[in-house]
Amino acid sequence: MAVHPLLLQQFPLLKSLPADVLERLAGQASSQSFAKREVVLPKSTAPRHLCLLVNGRLQAIDFTLDGREVGLYFIDPGDYFAELALIDGQPQPELVISNSVSQVVFVPAAEVRPLLFSTPAMAEALCRRLAQRVRVQVTHRQILGLTNPLQRICAHLELLTLGGDGQRRIVKAPTHQEIAIMVSLTRETVTRTFQVLQTRGVLTRDGEDLVVDSARMSDLASGGTSD
Amino acid sequence: MAVHPLLLQQFPLLKSLPADVLERLAGQASSQSFAKREVVLPKSTAPRHLCLLVNGRLQAIDFTLDGREVGLYFIDPGDYFAELALIDGQPQPELVISNSVSQVVFVPAAEVRPLLFSTPAMAEALCRRLAQRVRVQVTHRQILGLTNPLQRICAHLELLTLGGDGQRRIVKAPTHQEIAIMVSLTRETVTRTFQVLQTRGVLTRDGEDLVVDSARMSDLASGGTSD
């Protein structure tokens, strides 16, 4: 089942492609809906498509060698995934599941792969994305190395606040359960820590967002007492 | 001080460039020697060059948020580094030091960056390299999550053995100290574990290499007793 070329054109990665190329890709693409907590991409198989999220929210998940679940990153509408397998043909290193009802477009790898490397704007976008993944993993590894749970949660919240100064905002904040998976702690520990942070005014809920006093959060993340 | 175009041509990343482009890059490149344990690239500055290792051996190192040193990966002759900053202009996420006397060629980022994205062979090579870094980080994170030191060292040695079946070889094996840094353990623990593995015949030294009984190593890495 093909998708409309205008749907593909909405994705930043593909928008530099000429209309005829987009039309050809759209003719070979397919679209699929996923219920909440459904597996979108299994781990350890090599996906043969570039996957693009139209709406909903996905999360990439891995398991430690002794079996604990670790959340890696979120995928939001407009974003793409399965790019590692597209590049090197190796298996998918992590599981991707839907955190809410989601619609995903699948574009065959054989069609899109040559375009990625021969279109400078796409090559640069892909390299920037991969560089970003490497950088997030570096930070994430540093966070998981922290033994104090309060410090670990604060360092993770700091990672989630992007740009701006002073007061920062985490838009559509992950749930306590989602954060717990991300930082390898229990949901109860995250809830307890959030209560402490909210009582002390370091964290304020604003609808679906969280507003962060970033100076004090940063102090707590580096092991300070933020008093 | 310029370098010879033939020197640049030896690097797999650059070999697809036409002779006149290589000559131009070589005219703007410079070469520098580093003593053992010298800092080649400091952390947290944005390097303005693509760096290529002519000879010697380098190691990328990071520090945990509470100050422990963690070795990330080795850089061998023919290899390049500082590619993250080249792509996104952000600071270098890790320190690069020389593990032995090393010669490094520096090519200005402003010259080489446009070529990376407009030369399909270079774009693909760069994407493959970054994908490989993401995959190694995924595995490395899983290994650091193991609490048993024997298991952690075996999982790391398994990661270092590439290709082949049955008996595998780690060419120019890292020292106990280098492995200790890689897996966040003391040198003493690594030496003690190596003695156990060598006594049991799981690991055999052959000159500079290590020969690994990969079936039993893999069993130990997954928490088995390998008896």
Provide the CATH topology of the largest domain in chain A.
Jelly Rolls
Name the chain pair with the biggest interface and residue counts per chain: A-B, 45 and 45 residues
Mean pLDDT of chain A: 88
How far is the N terminus from the C terminus of chain A?
59 Å
Order of strands across the biggest sheet of chain A? 1-8-3-6
InterPro entries (chains A, B): cNMP-bd_dom, cNMP-bd_dom_sf, Env_Response_Regulators, HTH_CRP, RmlC-like_jellyroll, WH-like_DNA-bd_sf, WH_DNA-bd_sf
Protein name (chains A, B): cAMP-binding protein
Domain Cyclic nucleotide-binding (chains A, B): 13-133
Pfam family, one (chains A, B): cNMP_binding
Task: Tell me what the structure shows.
The first copy, chain A, is an alpha+beta fold and 227 residues long. Chain A folds into two domains: 5-143, Jelly Rolls (Sandwich), CATH 2.60.120.10; 148-221, Winged helix-like DNA-binding domain superfamily/Winged helix DNA-binding domain (Arc Repressor Mutant, subunit A, Orthogonal Bundle). Helices cover 42% and strands 24% of the residues of chain A. Chain A is built from nine helices and eleven strands. Chain A has helices spanning 5-9, 19-28, 83-88, 109-118, 120-144, 149-160, 176-182, 187-199, 214-221; strands spanning 30-34, 39-41, 49-55, 58-63, 69-75, 80-81, 95-98, 102-108, 167-170, 203-206, 209-213. Chain A has a four-stranded antiparallel sheet with strand order 1-8-3-6. Chain A has a four-stranded antiparallel sheet with strand order 2-7-4-5. A three-stranded antiparallel sheet of chain A has the order 9-11-10. The longest helix of chain A is centred in the middle third of the chain and has 25 residues, at 120-144. At the A-B interface, α3, α4 and α5 of A face α3, α4 and α5 of B. Chains A, B: It holds the Pfam family cNMP_binding.
